[in-house]
Structure formats: structure tokens, C-alpha cells
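Q: C-alpha cells for this one, please.
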Amino acid sequence: MKPKMLFLTLSLGLAAAAVCLAGDTKAEQALRDTDDAWSKAAASKDLDKTVSYYSADASVLPPNAPIATTKEAIKKLWGDLLASPGLVISWKATKVEVAKSGDLGFVSGTYEITMNDASGEPTTDKGKYVEVWKKQADGKWKCGTDTWNSDMPATQLAETK
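A: Here is the predicted structure, written as C-alpha cells:
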């Protein structure tokens, strides 16, 4: 192969790869931004906005509690959490991946939550989470599966209750 033709072929290949990667990066950033906005909605204790990030068929798998699969159960779970005295909540994505199809993605990261214990003293928990997201017909991302758990040993969790 002639050097000029080889250079042209390599250049076109690199340009095509850059376009493909830019599309993935754009979808990943959109999902990261959506997850960040969700964390801010929860931090502001806006119940309706917080639960609006779930898809109609979402499943929420909270630690030490039954799975929530209906809108009512999910709203109750979040309502109880957001009403907790002294609540401060936030989470941050550390890994975001989007399927090649562009309509399914997952986010994992870390969270921190502080609330008052039974004696009224603030107690902080740190842990990790995983969310599975589906792109909707309108182009918006909605969380279909949400789960999280603490980094604290189970014995330490029991002592803080």
C-alpha cells in the first residue's frame, strides 16, 4: 500500500473512531448530568422531583427493606427518607456506561447520608450505589433499577440504630 493511501486510510479510521467515541461520551455525560440533578433534587427534599427520575416500571431495592415496585411504594420510601430529621443526602457518580445501542446505561458511585439517630444526634453513613437507566421515547433518561448499601459493617449499623 502506498504511503499516501495508508495515511488517508488511517486518518479516516481515526476520524470515524473519534465520532463514535464522541457519541458515547455525549450519552454518558447526559446520564451523569441527570444523576447529578437527581441528587440535587433529593438534597432539596423535593419529593415529587426526586421520584420523577424513576421509570413507570422501576424497582427500588433499598438496604434492609423490601423491594419497592409501585409508584406508591417508591414515593412512600422516599417520602419517609426525605422527612427524616436532620437529613442531608447526596451521591456522586464514579462510573457511567452506556450500551452501544444508546438506550440503556448504568451509573455507579458513592453516597453520603446524615440523619438524626433516636437520641437526636447526627449519624452519617457512607456507601455505594448502582442504577440502571433506560432512555425513554422522549429522549429523557429514567432510572429503572436503583439499589444502594452501606460501607459500614453490619454490626456498626446495628449499634447506631
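A few notes: The first strand starts at residue 54 and ends at 61. Confidence is low (pLDDT under 50) at residues 5-23.
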